[in-house]
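ok so i was messing around last nite and threw this chain in just to see what happens. nothing serious, just curious
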Amino acid sequence: MMGIMIAIFIVVINLILQMIIIRLVDWIGEDTHSQQLETITNLVFIAQFFNTGILMLLINANMTEHQPTFITSMLNQDYYDYVPKWYSDVGY
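result:
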C-alpha cells in the first residue's frame, strides 16, 4: 500500500512540476514557438528525472557509512545493498 501511495505522490508532483514549468516558460517567453517547446521539454525532463529517479534512490539509501553525519542521520535507511526486500519496497 505504501509503495502505491508513493508512486501516486510522485506522479502528482510530476504533473504539478510540469504545469509550473510550462507557465514559467510561457511567462518568460522565447523568440520562436519551437524554442519555447524545446525549453519546456528539456526542463520538464530534468525535473521529472530528478523527482522520479534520483530522489527515490537518495531517500531510500542507507547513508550510515558516509559523511557528513547530519545528512546521514536524516537519510538513514535499512537497506545496505540490493536485497530482495529492497525490490518490493523501493525498486519497482
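not much to say yet. Residues 2-28 form the longest helix (27 residues).
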